[in-house]
Amino acid sequence: MCGIIGYAGDECAVPIIVDGLKKLEYRGYDSAGIAIFDGGGFNVVKQKGRLAALEEKLENTSLCGNMGIGHTRWATHGEPSDVNSHPHLGSGSKIAVVHNGIIENYKQLKARLERRGITFASQTDSEVVAQLAEYYYKGDLLDAVIKTANALEGSYALGIMCLEEPDVLIAVKKDNPLIVGVSQNANFIASDVPAILKHTNQVYYLEDKEIAVLTKNGVEFFNTDKEPLTKQIETITWSVDSAEKGGYPHFMLKEIMEQPKVLRDTIQTEITKLPDISQFNKIVITACGSAYNAGVVSKYVFERLCRFPSIEVDLASEFRYKDACVDEKTLVILVSQSGETADTIAAMREAKSKGAVTLSIVNVVGSTLAKEADYTVYTAAGPEIAVATTKAFSTQLAVLYKLAVKFAVDLQKISQEEAKTLSDEIATIPDKVAEILTHIDFIQKYASTCIGYKSIFFIGRNIDYAIALEGSLKLKEISYIHSEAYAGGELKHGTISLVEEDTLVVAISCCQRLYPKIFSNMEQVISRGAKVFLVSNAAEAEEHDKLSLLKLPDIHELFSPSLSAIVLQLFSYYVAANKGCDIDKPRNLAKSVTVE
């Protein structure tokens, strides 16, 4: 949520910052702006709406300068508007600030500053940061930033410039991601790697309450006691091309098509450091959104293979508030693409405070979850730009499968021979996904007939129900069609009342032993006028006038969600594409939810 980029160098900052903001569009936003130091003062241009509107506004200016900050805003305090957009200036126009996060005590700070005669221009909590920093500024920007950071409660990633120190850009963070990129000719701050990847692959990851002081010639780091810090630089292995569309109309389609490769890379990566599973009597998997759905899928796998006494899956946003029953005998598995999901981080910290051991599954090296969890396993999805996750979800499933097999062996619930058979089956997933991707034309054609539906329902049994949850989420995320997922056996317990003439029901059936059960459910909805799109590898599955079938390759039912997911992703993508939706940047959504 929200995107930040800052530049200090020798070139004109405007095109560099605008290009960086484009690379951060996936984070979700409703307005954008930049502030440039042009030698005489801060020149601020900001605009409600898409970046194209900001670019159009910039075309009518001769704005240039060698230092600046930019921001894409996702509104939390104050409506989307030009005045509420970032960057914000102090009332004396000495300090310019961009902010990602939520300042929880902004009302108290604002009231205090107003009593001192300071006038506010916006409705935002973020303007408080600019006004407070300007109030504290007495000739040393670093001192003012330290005092400001110490006064703030909540979460923040900040980029701050000062009129009286025109060669300095300062960054500080707490509970929100912020990186520092360095190169020979310039230095950068950014919310995420894609914003600066075309300029450098050398980055520092800021820890909470660490401060970076940038000039065009170098970077220094300090803590909030103004003590110098030594930090280790990291090299990003992603290629520049990996964050580009590569000829595809949308990032989402590109990322769907990348799945055979990233799955192969993830599956082939050895997991070396794990806790001793025998010391636990409970596993809790917690996550948000699609990562939560991956956890629901994996619960079936862990239960079947590990026969563990207790396995729970919790939404991270609920886990943090429910006073969860976890202790030193609990392994808490946290799943997040970005590793910066606010609720998942809070769940991790809550679990650790109660003595639980934590294991994170993340895609981003250096992320908060990766650094703070007791153990970390990385997926090899590479940068994922589309808001709706595809390849990150698939690689999360692959890691969870591998963990389940490993734990089952360690618990002596399966033999080494059985483990090898299961591992060999997991290794076939990339090729079988590639096979499914040859059926794009069929899925595209079928999806084109579905754009008129007001509601689409997904049903499945057992692990097929778990992946139905993800299919339903994917569809509603990007097509804006109402969708729900139901366990097939629950239809008669109320939900079948929603089925009427020409309703579409997507049925998933890859549990061969349960095909007769889901077939009965399909007959029930068809008899009430519904049409069914069946995704299945069952031998007896057949098409008829009310039922369209896409046949999947054979695979062990525990790993079948990895195949069903591809069809459901493509189906959702092409429904949304035929509706003309903004697929990579669906309304009101952000890629990484870094505030509660």
Description:
- It is a single chain.
- The chain has 596 residues and is an alpha/beta fold.
- The protein is built from 18 helices and 25 strands.
- The radius of gyration is 25 Å and the shape is globular.
- The termini are close together.
- The model has no long low-confidence stretch (mean pLDDT 92).
How widely separated are the two ends? 11 Å
* Main β-sheet description: 8 strands, antiparallel
Beta-strand level of the residues, as a percent range? Answer: 15-25%
Q: Would you identify the regions where 5 or more consecutive residues have pLDDT less than 50?
A: none
Order of strands across the biggest sheet? 3-2-4-1-10-9-11-15
User: If you average the pLDDT, what whole number results?
Assistant: 92
Write a short abstract of this structure.
Helices cover 34% and strands 24% of the residues. By secondary structure, it is an alpha/beta fold.
Keywords:
596 residues; alpha/beta; 34% helix
Write the topology of this structure.
Layout: E1 3-9, H1 13-23, E2 31-37, E3 42-48, H2 51-59, E4 67-73, E5 88-89, E6 95-103, H3 106-115, H4 127-136, H5 141-151, E7 154-162, E8 165-174, E9 179-182, E10 186-190, E11 202-205, E12 211-215, E13 218-222, E14 228-229, E15 234-235, H6 251-257, H7 259-268, E16 282-287, H8 289-306, E17 311-315, H9 316-319, E18 330-336, H10 342-353, E19 357-362, H11 368-372, E20 375-378, H12 391-410, H13 416-427, H14 429-436, H15 440-447, E21 455-460, H16 463-479, E22 482-487, E23 504-509, H17 515-526, E24 531-536, E25 547-551, H18 561-579
Parallel strand pairs: 16-17, 16-18, 18-19, 19-20, 21-22, 21-23, 23-24, 24-25
Antiparallel strand pairs: 1-4, 1-10, 2-3, 2-4, 5-6, 6-7, 7-8, 8-12, 9-10, 9-11, 11-15, 12-13, 13-14
Helix pairs in contact: 3-4, 4-5, 7-12, 7-14, 8-12, 8-16, 12-13, 14-18, 15-18, 16-18
